[in-house]
Amino acid sequence: MTATPGLIPRGARNPGSQGALRHLNQERLVEFLLANGPSTQAELARGTGLSTATVSNIVRDMAAKGVVATSPVTSSGRRALLVQLTDTGDVAVGVDFGRRHVRIVLATLGYDVIAEEQVALEPGYDVLGAVREASGLLDRMLVEGGHDRESVLAVGVGIPGPIDRRTGTVLQGAILPEWVGITRRELEDVFGFPVMVDNDANLGALAEVTWGANRGERNIIFVKIGTGIGAGLILNGQPYYGFLGITGELGHTPVAEHGVICRCGNRGCLETVASTSVMLESLGRGTGAAVTTADILRRGLDKDPAVLRVVSDAGTAIGRAIGNIANVINPELVLIGGPLVGLGDALLDPIRHGIQHNALPIIAGTTSVRVSSLGDRAESLGAAAIVIQGALAGNE
Amino acid sequence: MTATPGLIPRGARNPGSQGALRHLNQERLVEFLLANGPSTQAELARGTGLSTATVSNIVRDMAAKGVVATSPVTSSGRRALLVQLTDTGDVAVGVDFGRRHVRIVLATLGYDVIAEEQVALEPGYDVLGAVREASGLLDRMLVEGGHDRESVLAVGVGIPGPIDRRTGTVLQGAILPEWVGITRRELEDVFGFPVMVDNDANLGALAEVTWGANRGERNIIFVKIGTGIGAGLILNGQPYYGFLGITGELGHTPVAEHGVICRCGNRGCLETVASTSVMLESLGRGTGAAVTTADILRRGLDKDPAVLRVVSDAGTAIGRAIGNIANVINPELVLIGGPLVGLGDALLDPIRHGIQHNALPIIAGTTSVRVSSLGDRAESLGAAAIVIQGALAGNE
Predict the structure, then answer these.
(1) Interface pTM (ipTM) of the complex?
(2) A323 CA: distance to closest CA in chain B (Å)
(3) Are residues B217 and B364 in the same domain?
(4) pLDDT digit string, tens, across residues A76-107
(5) Taking a C-beta distance cutoff of 8 angstroms, is the pair A44, A59 a contact?
C-alpha cells in the first residue's frame, strides 16, 4: 500500500503565526529587562536564548514604539547597545465587573500598578448603568493621577460570562442575564477608549502567570467559584481560547441527571449544585435570614458543621469535574479563586478529594491544588495584562 | 490518551523556548517549500511572514544538515539565493503497535510514504517478542527498499497506553499490561535505532494535521475507540502534552458511581462501559460464540437492533464525556478513530447526541464530529511525523 503524501503543507495556516511568535519573544525580552535592569543586546540574547538577529529586530521595533530606549556603551572593550525600559507614560486600564463590584487598575507597560480602586454595585445592577459608573470612576482616577486621556492604551474589561471572540459579544450563560448580548462596541461607546473584553476566569488565569506567584507555570486551570463556576486555562504557557473563545465552562458539566434546569439551558449542571448562590440558599433555608459569603467564611473558620458540610459537598463536586478535565489536559497546577478562598483547606481538601475520585492516580498525585495568589485583584490585573500584551505585541 | 517522550526532542522541553520557536519556523519554511517548490529567501520571507534574518539563519542551518540546497540566482535583476528541498535519502520510520497488529511506514522528510506494511499479532502477544518481530519486518523493508541503515533518522513508535514523558516509560493503563514499564531504551535496544515513543491517540491526532484531511485545523480532539478509549489533542495547532504527557485519558472519566473496577485503579470508568471489548462481551453473552469487531461492523450495517443498541449506548456515553471536555477546550473538530468507524453515522450520531446532552448549546452546535480521515493508517503516519518533525527541528 502506498500513500498519499502530506503534500499540502501542514497548514500551519496561521498557527504560531508571526504575530504570536513576535509577541512571545517581546514578552521574554521585557521580562528579562524587568528582572535584570538595563542590559546590552548581547546580554539579552544570552539571557533569553533568542538569536542576536531576533533581539536586535525586536529591540528596534520596541524602540520605535518608545517602549525601550537604546544607548551605545562599551562592554568588555567592545561597542554594544544598552537597552532599557522607558517609562512611556502609557497607561493600561483593567476593569473587572463582578456580581456586586467593579474594580479598576491602572498600570504601566512594565507591569507596575499605578492606581487601583473598587466600588460596590447593587445586586442585580443595570449593566450599562454600571459601565457608566465604571467609566466615571476611571475618568476620575486618570485625572487624579495626572494621566491625560491620550496616554490610555486601551481598557481591558473582564465580564462574568462566556464571550464569543468572533464578535466580542457576551453570550447566554453570563451571571447577570443583562450582560447577554452586550458587545465590545457598546463598551467602547461608554468608556470612550478602545476596549478589549475577556471572560473573568480567563483573566484570572492570565494574571497568575503575568502578575502572580505562578509565572513560569505552563499548564494551569484557574477555577473561579462564585455565583458561576468558570475556569480559565493557561496551556503551553499561553492563555487558551479554543475555537470561539468559549473555554473553561466547567460550571456546565452535568452532574445531576434529573437536576434542575440551568441558566445555560441544560440540566443538572455543576453550577446548580455547587455555586456560592446554591451554598447560601442551602444554609439560609428555614432560618428566615439571608446568609452571605462573609457568613460562610466566618462560620467556616469557626468549624460550623453545616457550613463545612455544604462547602465539602460543593468542593467535592467541583473537584470531580476538575478531575475529568485534568485527565485530559494534565495540568501541573489547579488554582482556586473566588470569595471563599479564605476558607483555605476547608475548601481545598474537598476539591482535592474530588480530583482524586475522578482522575487517574498519577494525574491526581501530580496536580497541585492551591488558592489564587492574587485574591480579588486577579481579574482586574488580568484585564490590564491583555492591554499590556496587546501594546507590546503592537497589535500585530 | 497519552503521551510521550520524544527523545529526539522536539525541543518542547520548555516550550516557547528557542528550540520550540525555531522548530515552528523551520516547519513553516518546509511547508512553504513543499507547497510552492524552490523559492528565493525573499519569497520565503514574504510567504511565511518570517523576517529575512530568521529565514536566512534557518536556511543556513537546514543547508548544513542537507535538508535544503541553496544556489545563487538573479531575481528581478537582483542577486538572490534560491532554496530547494533536497531528497536527502533520509528515512523516517513510523511503527504502530495495536492490540492485534503492528504497522510500519517508511517516509521521507517531505512527508512522502515510501513503503507501508502491516502484520497481525496474536491476541495477548508477548510485547518484546512483538517488538522483535517489528524490528525484523523493518529490517526487511529497508533492504527491499535499498535503504541502508544509516539513512534511518529514527523510529517513531506508537503505543496504546499512557507514557510518562519525563522518563519515556509506559505507565499503568496500557491496553496490554505487558506494555507497562517498557521504556524507550528497551525499544532502542531491539530496533537498533534511536526511538521516539508516543501514545497512539496522540499520534492519530498529529497525523490528522500533518498527513490527513484536517491540516490547518487548530483545535482537535481525536478519540480512538478500541479496547481502550483514548484521546489525542491538537491545541493551537500543535500537539498538546500537558505536564507529564499523560493527556486525553477520556476513557477514565468515571461514569458509573458503583461500576466495576477499571484497569487504571479507579471505578466505573467510561472504558468499563463503552470500549469495543465491552461491546463484544455484551453482544456475545449467552450466544456461546465469540463476537468480533468485524461482526459488529457487518451486523451494524445490516441494522441488527442489538448491535445498534450497544453501539448507541456506548457512543452516547463517549459523547457525554467528550461534551464535558468540549465545554472546557472548545474544539472545532472531534475526530473518531478505531475499528468501528466503518459504521459511520450509526456510531457518530449517538456520539453527537451525547455531546449535545453535556455541552453548552453553542459548543455542541459549533463542534463538528467526523471520522478520522486516515483510518487505520493514522497512528503509524503520526509516528513517522514525530520523526520528521524532530529531524527538521534539528534536535535542538
Answers:
(1) 0.83
(2) 8
(3) yes
(4) 788 888 898 887 789 999 999 988 899 999 99
(5) yes
